[in-house]
Predict the 3D structure of the following.
Amino acid sequence: MDTKRLAVLSGGYIGPLSGNAVLAMIPVLKTDFGASAEEILLSITFFMLPFALFNLFSGTVSDVYGRRKMLTFGFLLYALGCVFCVMSPNLTAFYLSRSVQGVGFAFVNPVLLAVLGDMTPPHERGKVMGYFGAFTTAGIATGPMIAGFLTPYDWRWMFVLVAVLAIAVNFWIRTACPVSRPDPEAMKHLKSNVRTAVSSKGVATLCLLGFLTFLCYMGAIGFLSDHLSIPPLSFDEESIGLLVGMSGVAGMFAAPLGGRLVDAKGRTFTASIGFVVVGLAMGFLYFSSDWAQFAASLLVFGTGTAFIWASLLTITVEIIPRLKGTVSSVFNSSRFFGYSLAPLVFAPIYSFDGFGLVLLVGLALTLAALPVVLLLRAQLRASQSDSTASN
């Protein structure tokens, strides 16, 4: 793998590293800020809502003004948000600091996908998006693990580490992005590009699948750490960090396999397999009662999720080839709204009847995604037929 592509992939590692680290910090943050688990989990919503909102614009802006400027701005703002987290004296300040992080990384994530789409030929896109998924899930996996190791010393060290890494990766990744000249008709392009992307056949369905995937994922993972920390399980922070990271560990290895499956068997076929595997994992988690069973279930969970993302991310950079950045923005905004809303959607469910009901609702939503995949396949075929007819 060439260094330019590796630089871009490394950028995908940084966001989840910080975002998911909070999951392993919940017991300590509850004590430091005098808050409940549900209140600590709201810090994820404060990160993800601005992240999802600004995702809608950042990739589009990069199509017009250039990838490099957007990435530099995003990484530096993200690092600044980490510094604010370190300095937070209370939960309100921590919420606001997480929002700054979310805005910053919103100008990174969709642009990275657009850069990969720019530099990768069609026959390799499934594989490369699989690798991007592997790096992303590496952040999901190692974030809680590193946080679990650092938290006994001081949870703030995690955000110091992420700030340093964000600045370092920013300087490295600049070599992968050419300088672009500003377009004098930029605002006109912004509006027309977004309008074209949103109205194009299959884009809304693709966005719905991304939304459902992250809603189900975060619904399960978000409340897992609190479930594991209370009786009768009562696991310590390091054990919780390792378990929460298990789905990411699986994704690190499964994402490249999922990407190859995308290239070999098709985009929507791989997505269907992924949703079935995630559904099975929800069932396994429901019946888990010890560390080994939770670990095995989460490995299956991470594998299914990795297959889904390898498929959906490949479709994202192909569905409108000339608007990779714009479609990436719209798609990422939709899926991360699912991530950000999950704590709000599942908090009353968790409070009402615990983690088991959270899993049952997640299983129902996962099964509901399967006919949506079939709809997307039909729309993609119709779009290809229209394109062929017009040529």
